[in-house]
Known about the structure:
Blueprint: H1 3-16, E1 45-48, H2 69-72, H3 87-92, H4 94-98, E2 104-107, E3 111-113, E4 116-117, E5 123-124, E6 131-137, H5 144-156, E7 160-165, E8 175-176, E9 192-194, E10 197-199, E11 223-224, H6 256-259, H7 273-290, E12 294-297, H8 305-321, E13 328-331, H9 338-341, E14 352-353, H10 356-367, H11 372-380, E15 396-398, H12 407-414, H13 420-436, E16 440-444, H14 470-473, H15 494-508, H16 511-514, E17 516-521, E18 528-534, E19 541-547, E20 553-558, E21 565-570, E22 576-578, E23 584-589, E24 593-599, E25 612-614, E26 618-619, E27 624-631, E28 638-645, E29 651-656, E30 661-666, E31 675-683, E32 689-691, E33 695-698, E34 703-708, E35 714-715, E36 718-726, E37 734-740, E38 746-751, E39 757-762, E40 773-780, E41 783-784, E42 788-792, E43 799-805, E44 815-819, H17 825-828, E45 841-843, E46 846-852, E47 860-865, E48 882-884, E49 891-895
Parallel strand pairs: 1-2, 1-16, 2-7, 7-12, 12-13, 13-14, 15-16, 35-42, 43-49
Antiparallel strand pairs: 3-6, 4-5, 8-11, 9-10, 17-18, 18-19, 19-24, 20-23, 21-22, 21-24, 25-27, 26-27, 27-30, 28-29, 28-31, 31-32, 31-33, 34-36, 36-39, 37-38, 37-40, 40-41, 40-42, 43-46, 44-47, 45-46, 47-48
Amino acid sequence: xxxxxxxxxxxxxxxxxxxxxxxxxxxxxxxxxxxxxxxxxxxxxxxxxxxxxxxxxxxxxxxxxxxxxxxxxxxxxxxxxxxxxxxxxxxxxxxxxxxxxxxxxxxxxxxxxxxxxxxxxxxxxxxxxxxxxxxxxxxxxxxxxxxxxxxxxxxxxxxxxxxxxxxxxxxxxxxxxxxxxxxxxxxxxxxxxxxxxxxxxxxxxxxxxxxxxxxxxxxxxxxxxxxxxxxxxxxxxxxxxxxxxxxxxxxxxxxxxxxxxxxxxxxxxxxxxxxxxxxxxxxxxxxxxxxxxxxxxxxxxxxxxxxxxxxxxxxxxxxxxxxxxxxxxxxxxxxxxxxxxxxxxxxxxxxxxxxxxxxxxxxxxxxxxxxxxxxxxxxxxxxxxxxxxxxxxxxxxxxxxxxxxxxxxxxxxxxxxxxxxxxxxxxxxxxxxxxxxxxxxxxxxxxxxxxxxxxxxxxxxxxxxxxxxxxxxxxxxxxxxxxxxxxxxxxxxxxxxxxxxxxxxxxxxxxxxxxxxxxxxxxxxxxxxxxxxxxxxxxxxxxxxxxxxxxxxxxxxxxxxxxxxxxxxxxxxxxxxxxxxxxxxxxxxxxxxxxxxxxxxxxxxxxxxxxxxxxxxxxxxxxxxxxxxxxxxxxxxxxxxxxxxxxxxxxxxxxxxxxxxxxxxxxxxxxxxxxxxxxxxxxxxxxxxxxxxxxxxxxxxxxxxxxxxxxxxxxxxxxxxxxxxxxxxxxxxxxxxxxxxxxxxxxxxxxxxxxxxxxxxxxxxxxxxxxxxxxxxxxxxxxxxxxxxxxxxxxxxxxxxxxxxxxxxxxxxxxxxxxxxxxxxxxxxxxxxxxxxxxxxxxxxxxxxxxxxxxxxxxxxxxxxxxxxxxxxxxxxxxxxxxxxxxxxxxxxxxxxxxxxxxxxx
Length: 906
């Protein structure tokens, strides 16, 4: 990176976070602000896959294509093909959708798709994620005019329409002269070139220029188009093969998670400003021409930060200029770590993300009867999302979806043999938690009819109209005797009724949707979890108590009042109860149920602001700094945090409205070691304020993590040593060192190619004995990674062992289904789903499977099952597709009913 670029890269982030200001600005006192409520904090979403909802027009079933399913993609007997649903069917059922209390319909991608990809099953583009034309509705679903009519009808009813959009990839159209769907090649192995000169694309991401690329010489693979598909994609710029990464298929980890193709889908070069501008233009046209109300954005985590920092603000500004004052975008970040998911709403300037962490917490609570302390901790970490222009109240929450599976199926899997009555109660409990806690609840179509299914993806995409798919006809539905052989639009179904009533209660009591949420009561076991919701203007407290145990529980829930009456607004129990002198409200909550009580009147007005103090700032993940405030007293308080660097102006960095009061300041764009001051001001419900002390902290050094090689694994020859930095900057230069057998550290290389820093260390010349310990570490400025220690392996292994234990010793016919580049092809040729690889012998009660190898550095992928057996746990072991790398662990152990692959005997 040039000196000029380095200076600009430093200055612009300082201005972006608002901590550098013009001189001579008058000093002012801290400003007490209210916690934000964005334009969307009270929506009820209905998430629908149009092909699987209702077939309103059989004339478009084949999309105007030939009758052959491998041409048209239409086959209503197969779960991986178009089944016939369309926009007309959706429009005809708006009464049904609105009856759930729906305020926003969210459609899976509805643009024209490649009808069939023969390499994927084969399978069809019924789901919408294989787009070829970003300007046209898929003919299987209808026309652009029919979409306009649907939106007009929805708007007339007061409902919004959201589009599921994609910026990461298109359909699989590009091939390589080297072969189809190649393995990923990293930027360190084969960097991008322009005119024969190597460059790092990350040095240009977010800018307005980009090096010229040549399809024949610039990429690790040579992209080509079939003559019949030269102009297949629309808009036309999408047919330029140099606007794609062209690095082979992703494994969804590390660098390739951002640069690799999803199972061959053409991965767009989103670092290139031509792609950024093109995608912005595409989606601005849908807003202008159709009045779309918002976007759910697919695969957000697989696109670089700089793209979102341009895309989000520009699209939002355009929508607002075109009359969409409440336009709203939320991204799919398939991860359950809030420090990571919040990165996209803070650093990346996007409005919101789908709340995958909530889904995991809700399942553990409602389906798994987990300890309620876990839910308390989960909500306490909502502070990760709090910054100056967004917070957690905008996040859409959900229980199941088209990728991970249906909540009803999860409830059945988590509670085998419990029976329909309990399954329905747990399903209802999950929805009660979702509707009464912060966020915007999302109902996945069919969940309101008790749909289940054995897993995710195609197994969770049943039709609401009568199905002819054999796998779907085998599914049981919760709360009904109905089957998938008939249409399921039953508005009397107990889950439909529950969801409808939850939406109605929240509509009558808006505080239950976007009021302040304060955790109140939890325990280290299953039982009652309680929280309050309070509307800032009405100052009325609602107490929500959920019981995830199978017995009634009586609990004393703290409140903001002493000796005041509360009225029941949801659930069963006394019509009125009163808080005691100590402010606790004693409630008895039935098993697997929820009760909600509302204060009769207002919370008492605070007579003075409480004392407030800040603790020392602490480094946190993702380049963030944790700033926490201690507030004395118990009432409705809001704490606004401010920050400044030396010589700068104080700027608000977020307002928290519930204890514990804190923010995670995004300091990722400030230089490590920069001194930052923090202060806070508390606002009580009587409009009194008090200011905290001022504390000083320093921006922490980046955290370096070594990704490869595997700790304790085996290595030989040339070793790939790879590290990542948190926070990531294109200007980083990482140094790698090696120590042999505890000896001195020596530098083995440096790398400045982000986001994965890599060196290749040739150990062959060192003549190391097998078993010799080799340690690696990485450094960046004053930051240093942990030490990663491996062992030098001997000659390549010819055989690996897998040992399997069944307590009853009933190993007859249990065998391995295997695949991958490690296993001898002669062995793979003998294996079929009805003929798994058998054990070699039984030894000390364990079945021993010897696996002939051709490359011990590659993974052995396996499934343990009976011939043709695919039911967990009866005929197939849990854990799905498992693997191990023989050079790391020549022998592994697995146990019946346990998904873990053990490196030593358990």
